[in-house]
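Q: What does the assembly look like in three dimensions?
Context provided by user:
Components: two
Sequences:
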Amino acid sequence: MLTAKVNVSLKTGVVDPQAGAIKSALINLGFKDVQSVSVSKLIEIKLDSDSKGKARKDAEEMCEKLLANTVIENYKIEITED
Amino acid sequence: MLTAKVNVSLKTGVVDPQAGAIKSALINLGFKDVQSVSVSKLIEIKLDSDSKGKARKDAEEMCEKLLANTVIENYKIEITED
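A: Here is the predicted structure of the complete assembly.
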């Protein structure tokens, strides 16, 4: 059993209103140390597979086809053993 | 400069329709190895602070007050140096 951990984040330069809202809210709550905020999605997929190579290839294909919008998003894949 | 990496995920037992939809879609796309999918949010906060202790305390307070809905969500905090 392998786990593919996929992190999907906005590309540099793409405006992220959610992160902006969180930053403003934190500063308004009194957290004056906050310099910047970024938000990304972590998708963990458990795979019934023993080949790390195949798992990575599959995860890349999943990102290209479904998990990420590659026009505006980057993805990072990490394969771990359970 | 420190970075607080906050992972916010649904508690065990809370139904996650987004993860369910991703799982079904992946299986429909032909990824038959997929056993389960979970989705969480990763919030990275850059802090103008040099005290890891204070950064952790602040990040915990941010989670309790804003970042997580502690009725249905768990959070994990990691403090890293840039």
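Follow-up: Chain B touches chain A at residues 1, 7, 22, 25-26, 29, 31, 33-49, 55, 58, 61-62, 65-67 (CB under 8 Å).
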